[in-house]
Amino acid sequence: NEAKIVGVAKGGWRIGIIHGSVDTLVPVTMGRQLHRLACAEAGPLSPRFAEVPGGGHNDVLSRATRLYAELLGMIDVTSEALMPGCCVLIEGLQSTKDLNGQRAILQRWDAKARRWVVTLASSDTEKSVRPENLKPLP
């Protein structure tokens, strides 16, 4: 699947991955890895990832029907919204300018630090970034 997801991402396809957090057949770590690879190779369309809390392999659709509809474009969702699983472009950093222009995946909001914890698409490295330095990718 890893080779296929890279080819699909390079081909410019819209990619959406929805994975149950308690899937025992295909571990959620595999879905996260596919998403990371897709983000690293994506063209103009940003791959999306959603982890469904409590979702298993056979009930994820019933638990996440709205997410499926959003990913298929059946429900209009603003691309400007920052939410976990979204791919973003890092920009405008002053102290770590080498991160500018890199794609990242939003992991979680750190309310205390008032920053997003992101994983760089090119690696498994986590960084903490202010929201004004993150541009959602379509």
What does this structure look like?
It is a single chain. With 138 residues, the chain is an alpha+beta fold. The protein is built from 4 helices and 7 strands; from the N terminus they run H-E-H-E-H-H-E-E-E-E-E. The radius of gyration is 15 Å and the shape is globular.
List keywords for this structure.
138 residues; alpha+beta; 5-stranded antiparallel beta sheet; two-stranded parallel sheet; globular
First-residue to last-residue Cα separation? 23 Å
In the predicted model, the low-confidence regions spanning at least 5 consecutive residues are: none
Query: Number of helical runs?
Result: 4
Write down the secondary-structure element order.
Answer: HEHEHHEEEEE
Please sum up the structure shown.
By secondary structure, the protein is an alpha+beta fold. The protein has helices spanning 2-10, 28-41, 60-63, 65-71; strands spanning 16-20, 48-52, 87-90, 103-110, 115-120, 126-129, 134-136.
